[in-house]
Write a structure and sequence with these properties.
By secondary structure, this protein is α/β, with parallel strands linked by helices. It has five helices and 16 strands.
């Protein structure tokens, strides 16, 4: 009996070790559950920490210097539910456009506190009845170390123009203490990307017919040249081949659960 128990304990230890190794390879911290949000941490020029939480699809939670920043928060998408009520109230909420997988009043209400600032495009502000409006080309100085630029995001494929017409939606470039973050929103590989410079972290979408094919995403990354690229908004699109395609370009690609 003693030998049997010893063998069972050894097998259990092996299984636990294998499970932890699997989480580490997936970018999920050891000790967290299978549905834990993956977190990537970056450091700004003066040593401040920026953490990106991969929530779902196009929804990103950013922690920076005690501030909570939410990008396109959505409480329920398909089978996945995000419990925003368990998160701190947002200091800033950014909404890129009006589609249901980007604009969700339930999530916004759960995240909104007394001092929450919502920043979006004209159409979403009209739908919500409030919000700081940014049009393509606008720049907003939020704090001494926090600047936001609104950049174009639109479709170029002829039969897809109705999804994201030019001039309506916003992509955003957030500059946090020198760390430049490009949130591309729903777009194809548009020529304006050649004007986007010095990006440290980029989030670019990859699913047709609404955004980019993997080939378009690779082309977009070569135009923007971010140091780190997170494909997001990719649904069922296979993005596994993108990292090797961009390796020679010096772009580090990190695949997270942004289905």
């Amino acid at each position: 009996m003693k030998k049997l128990i010893t063998n069972l304990l050894a097998l259990l230890g092996l299984a636990t070790a294998c499970g932890q190794q699997g989480y580490e390879n997936a970018g999920i911290p050891v000790g967290m559950s299978d549905d834990a949000y993956e977190v990537d941490t970056f450091t700004t020029q003066s040593g401040k920490t920026v953490k990106f939480h991969a929530l779902v699809h196009a929804s990103i939670r950013i922690e920076y210097d005690g501030k909570e920043i939410q990008i396109d928060p959505v409480a329920k998408l398909g089978e996945k539910t995000i419990n925003y009520a368990a998160m701190p109230k947002a200091d800033y909420i950014f909404i890129t456009h009006e589609h249901h997988d980007h604009l969700d009043t339930t999530a916004i209400n759960m995240l909104t506190g007394e001092n929450t600032q919502l920043i979006t495009n004209q159409r979403c502000a009209e739908m919500l009845g409030y919000g700081t409006v940014m049009a393509n080309g606008d720049t907003l100085q939020i704090a001494d170390d926090f600047t936001v630029e609104a950049v174009p995001a639109y479709n170029t494929t002829e039969e897809h123009l109705q999804f994201h017409p030019k001039g309506r939606d916003d992509g955003f470039i957030l500059t946090l203490d020198g760390l430049r973050i490009y949130i591309a929103a729903d777009t194809e590989d548009i020529h304006e990307m050649t004007e986007i410079k010095d990006i440290d972290v980029a989030f670019m979408p990859c699913n047709q017919p609404y955004t980019m094919t993997p080939e378009q995403l690779i082309n977009a990354a070569r135009m923007v040249k971010p140091k780190v690229l997170f494909p997001y908004h990719y649904g069922q699109t296979d993005v596994s081949g993108i990292p090797s395609q961009l390796e020679a370009d010096g772009v580090e690609v990190r695949i997270r659960h942004y289905e």
